[in-house]
Specification:
The chain is globular. Helix 9 packs across helix 12 and helix 10 packs across helix 11. Helix content is about 45%, strand content about 15%. The chain contains twelve helices and six strands. The termini are far apart. With about 270 residues, the protein is of the alpha+beta class. It comes from Chitinimonas prasina. InterPro entries: AraC_XylS_family_regulators, Homeodomain-like_sf, HTH_AraC, HTH_AraC-typ_CS, PAS-like_dom_sf, PAS_4.
Length: about 270
């Protein structure tokens, strides 16, 4: 029998908040099946307390677990090396506090052969229809070439952190390059190699994605959302949002109102070539 991604099988489907959270996590866990057998991807669903609910086979191989039960119900601190677990937990706390997804972070990881390396990580908060956090969905893609040729290091990861989770700040490419220990041209070349876009577009993508999440979350005025995302005024937000998403923020908000509340935002930026 083919291996099936581990999914907690003792879930309570009572028609109350706890039951709906369990059902929602179970639904998210089914997606792990899409990533089983796809090399270079790690997929995890955690509950709101950070305990692993489901994961693909790649995660089991990376942490050298003998069976899924060695991981299920445990936290990152009980599974991963200390420096990696601390970073993963910091991400989760940022996500919970800001109520925003995380995209494009560079993270240290273990590959399935046991070698340490780097990956690109995305994390999504999972909410039930009441608005309560049910858990966190995590997806990571390995970057073995960047890890082995020295393209990625901690300095570069720290600079990328500023671009993808401190997007509300005033960011200058020269300052980010200096933080990474690179010239501006070297920094731009590395970001393009990893992400396929320029540093300026990576910052813009982070800001627009955050705006998408904020438009979904509440009815805050566009001027407030613009400031939270580093656009400084709603006119700039509207222009850049139109460029990236293909519609304006108000129309996007109206579209969101027609979508189920517990699903993930599915619109992704489309970049001019």
């Amino acid at each position: 029998m083919a291996w099936q991604p581990h999914i907690a099988n003792q879930l309570d489907y009572r028609q109350d908040e706890q039951g709906w959270q369990a059902a929602h996590l179970h639904g998210a866990a089914q997606t792990a099946m899409l990533f089983d057998g796809v090399p270079g991807f790690a997929y995890v669903v955690k509950d709101a307390a950070g305990r692993y609910v489901s994961f693909n086979q790649s995660v089991i191989q990376r942490v050298k677990a003998r069976r899924p039960e060695d991981i299920r119900g445990r936290t990152a601190a009980e599974i991963w090396p200390g420096n990696m677990a601390a970073r993963y937990n910091q991400q989760d706390q940022w996500l919970i506090k800001r109520q925003l997804p995380i995209f494009d972070q560079l993270d240290p990881t273990l590959y399935t052969d046991g070698e340490a390396g780097w990956c690109v990580t995305h994390k999504y908060p999972l909410y039930v229809t009441t608005g309560e956090l049910a858990g966190i969905l995590c997806l990571s893609r390995d970057l073995p070439e960047g890890s082995r040729n020295g393209l990625i290091n901690e300095q570069l990861a720290n600079a990328v952190d500023r671009m993808v989770i401190h997007f509300e700040d005033k960011l200058q490419i020269a300052d980010l390059a200096e933080q990474a220990g690179l010239s501006s041209s070297q920094f731009s070349a590395r970001i393009r190699k990893i992400y396929g876009i320029s540093p300026a577009d990576l910052i813009l993508r982070s800001r627009v994605r955050a705006a998408c999440a904020l438009l979904r979350r509440d009815d805050a005025p566009l001027s407030q959302i613009a400031l939270q995302c580093g656009f400084y005024d709603h006119s700039l937000l509207s222009r850049q949002f139109q460029r990236v998403i293909g519609t304006n923020p108000s129309s996007y908000r109206k579209w969101l109102q027609t979508q189920p509340q517990s699903t993930l935002v599915s619109w992704e930026p489309h970049w001019p070539r």
